[in-house]
Design a protein that fits this description.
This protein has 19 helices and 17 strands. It is α+β, with helices and mostly antiparallel strands and about 500 residues long.
Amino acid sequence: MAIEYDKKKKYSPEELMEMAYQESLFSIPEHDHKPDPLVGAILTTSDGKILATSHRGELRIGEHCEFTLIERKLKSENLKGCHLYVTLEPCIDKVRKPPKRGCATHIYKARLAKVYIGIRDPDIDIENEGANELISKGIIVEDFHFDIAEKIRLSLAEFIKYKEVQKLIIQQEREEKPIAYLKQAVINTTISQFSKTAIDEFIKNSQATFTYPSQTFNDWALSFELATKDGETIMPTKLGLMLFGEHADDTLSHTIFKIELDYGNGKAEIEDFGGPVATQLPRIMKFIKDKGLKLTIDRSSAKREIVSDFPIEVLREVVANAIIHRDYTITEATNYLYIGSEKIIVRSPGIPMPPLTIDDIRTMNLPSISRNPKIMFVYNRMGLAEARGIGLRNMKRLPDSGFPLPTFNLIGNILEIIFVRDSSLIPELKGVSPKDLTPEDREGLFFIQQKELVSVKEYASHFGLTDKTAQRRIAKLFDKGLLEKVGENRWIKYRIKN
């Protein structure tokens, strides 16, 4: 069975979302021992004419409906520019057994233009990654309307509960992984390979009472798990070597912090920062100040000050977080900073630390939690980082300086943060003085600009507000003539007014 439709009619997105939900209810279960998701999908032309519909298991038990549409029902069709409505986030390659490919791969290879997603897949290895993969391939991704998404969640209640329990088990296993990795001894090394300069810097800033080398230091290193004993030999752990090793990157090459400066016209400079992780941040920041940002002399005050064209404290904050909170068990990738004339990009290995998600990161309202508490401790004692787990204070203040808020993406197991270097304010284009806008006004405008279309619920969720407060803030911007409405009644969204 399947839903009935008129092949000649142009359906609205709202109608197609509802029809995809109805189609999902025909899904055929695959397993007896665990719940399978109900998934429905509809492929349409860009103007809303239905090409085909499908549900999970329609042609073959267990077969995903996106695959059914693209590789079976419409295999001979040119699907470039078409739209897909699917009730559950498309899966990715890493959760499929070769030679099977993830649905996201089939979608972008078919060159679809836009994908509407009902809800994100609660599977820990798929959640947001399917959507992010599509976005990275240039496909526009939009969410179903809230009411329809809620119906989908209700129909998948058993499946979602099962995945949440599974997620908790996996998260507990993953929480131990970085800690266990850092405790491992580095064979064929000794504590004499620690950098005296780095340790002296730590001692000076932390006001420690020991010296290096000394028995007192050895005792502290053993108790702090910077070292371990093999008989009478004291060997550095991976934590100790990466923090204080004179040439840590010779053994642990993934601890390198790579920086690329794009000067334009095909000219670039790449610099690798290895050595002790404990001293990486000051060395990196000196390089950024000296070469990475255009610096000017501000003579408007009594003091002669060097001012960057991008807030230097924001970069310091994001570089520190990348060093402290990255997943060091991912040995095939390094921290990476790109500085160009138009944007700044930071990539750091590691998914958000459970129970945080990429959506939590995007709100920038985060609890005190750290993947690497001992690296955090060292940085804190050296005065290089805040005591709390993740510092995003300066990032949140970017709109005060006239810059948009950063964009956060999860590309596989790499967290990517993108900063726009264009400091021009949207209101200036509208004839509204920045003085007439509060920081929260500018913050809201930049968020809507980045998302293009935003509902009250999306605005409220992003800023951690009640729907009523979000509505009031949006109404204020609308009354100033900065926003315009798209849609009607409960489907209303807002965008920057042209």
